[in-house]
Amino acid sequence: MTKHILAIDQGTTSTRAILFDGEMKVAGSAQQEFTQHYPASGWVEHDPEEIWSSVVTTIKGALTSAGRDPSDVAAIGITNQRETVVIWDRATGEPIHNAIVWQDRRTAPICQKLKKQGLEKTFTKKTGLLLDPYFSGTKIAWMLDKVKGARKRAEKGELLAGTIDSFLIWRLTAGKVHATDATNASRTLVYNIEKNVWDDELLSILRIPAALLPEVKDCADDYGVTEKGLFGAEIRILGVAGDQHAATIGQACFEPGMMKSTYGTGCFALLNTGADLVRSKNRLLTTIAYRLNGKTTYALEGSIFIAGAAVQWLRDGIKVIGKAEQSGKLAAEADPAQQVYLVPAFVGLGAPHWDAEARGAIFGLTRNSGPAEFARAALESVAYQTRDLLDAMRKDWKGASAKTVLRVDGGMVASDWTMQRLADILDAPVDRPTILETTALGAAWLAGSKAGVWPKAKDFAKTWALDRRFKPEMDAATRSAKLAGWRDAVRRTLSVP
Ligand SMILES: Nc1ncnc2c1ncn2[C@@H]1O[C@H](COP(=O)(O)OP(=O)(O)O)[C@@H](O)[C@H]1O
Ligand SMILES: O=P(O)(O)OC[C@H](O)CO
């Protein structure tokens, strides 16, 4: 029995390892949360050692829970929180600083300075991204500038940098492999997504020595083997992708025009545009959906920073619910006559506004407004924000037809009320699959197909199964009145209206 595939899903708040059997069913899993460090306002860090130990522990836990040995595993697939970046010593493997997390805003002044120099167009043209602190490049530049001696050591070739996948590969292979995949590279702000190379001009603008960076491979590729001492057997690492890209694969969005949206802490919608590198005119990102057999498939991406986090705010911030799953029931009790809007710009707004300075706001309160109206406003904000993304995608690319169906996943899709409201506001069907572990499944598919034990893309796509389709039911007049109210609320929330 060597047909199991192990997926490592290294996320923003927890690490999960999931063992899939030869039938692509979950055979065992383990999860571990780790510490979020907030050393200053707007700063978010992770301890790479804690992440590493969570990976080792969950791998062992997943094997134990399935009653399997490492020798039963045909291959490992890694998927990870994107943009978060680590720099470590090549000789010792020790990080020189905590990982700077994707949510971290400390490099906003660097981005501002580059924008003032008129460089945003250059970055966008080459990387498909915008000058926002979200991406890895300015975080690497910050560490090289601020950690004592880092730049000198980097220039001498003593240091290595990489996103979390890259750091884990280095550790798993005991320092033999320094690599990343094209999707993770496409989030760094220094990777040319058209030429598929690290871009010398961008590296020199950010003063990042090329020697720091990993080799960029296909998503299904040979990433070396785990060091024998770690788990008692060498296991091949054959798949790597950023978590949103892995979810796109796990949702089998292999055809141009197919779209998935993942509703976790934030929401990330990816629309497959095939071989078309679509340049957004509406402040969306262009990204590499996946690269297989040297062939790049592109996507348009809309990134929303607050989705399920708005539900956490209902629970932990204003305490109108005790558990996330109570939010839908409470929202259903809201007074239909009241139009209360929440613009959840708690950490600024992402796509398509990219307003780092905006902060959350509530509009339309009356003396009758209470917990139910707040809950409805929080859940609806997720639907409205997705609608803004879909509208931008349709303007950007004719392949995003009016018939687009949205495949959804992530913790929040457990809420039927939210999914129905999403379909109503989008005026498009929303499909929830039976398997919600799509991110891990996507990583496992990369490794499993490369190992030859899982089906190729076409047959894998046939295994995608629908749990429930939510069809739009709201009448057009109500929808457009609600959308007009939302747009007005957003306009009044922007830092520069
Ligand atoms: N039944 C529910 N209704 C609404 N939101 C939910 C529900 N269950 C979970 N959530 C939200 O989903 C998020 C967790 O989803 P998950 O995919 O695990 O996120 P992440 O990977 O970003 O940590 C939380 O923000 C939580 O508030
Ligand atoms: O770890 P998640 O699921 O919150 O995803 C984070 C994204 O990859 C950030 O771009």
Automatic annotation (TrEMBL):
Residues 5-250 form the Carbohydrate kinase FGGY N-terminal domain. It catalyses: glycerol + ATP = sn-glycerol 3-phosphate + ADP + H(+). Glycerol binds at R82, E83, Y134, D243, Q244. Residues 260-448 form the Carbohydrate kinase FGGY C-terminal domain. Inhibited by fructose 1,6-bisphosphate (FBP). ADP binds at T12, R16, T265, G308, G411. It comes from the Bacteria. Belongs to the FGGY kinase family. Sn-glycerol 3-phosphate binds at T12, R82, E83, Y134, D243. This is Glycerol kinase. ATP binds at T12, T13, S14, T265, G308, Q312, G411. Transmembrane segments: none annotated. One of its GO terms (molecular function) is glycerol kinase activity. Keywords: ATP-binding, Glycerol metabolism, Kinase, Nucleotide-binding, Transferase. CDD domains: FGGY_EcGK_like (cd07786). Its EC number is 2.7.1.30. It comes from Mesorhizobium abyssinicae. Pathway: Polyol metabolism; glycerol degradation via glycerol kinase pathway; sn-glycerol 3-phosphate from glycerol: step 1/1. Key enzyme in the regulation of glycerol uptake and metabolism. Catalyzes the phosphorylation of glycerol to yield sn-glycerol 3-phosphate. InterPro entries: ATPase_NBD (IPR043129), Carb_kinase_FGGY (IPR000577), Carb_kinase_FGGY_CS (IPR018483), FGGY_C (IPR018485), FGGY_N (IPR018484), Glycerol_kin (IPR005999).
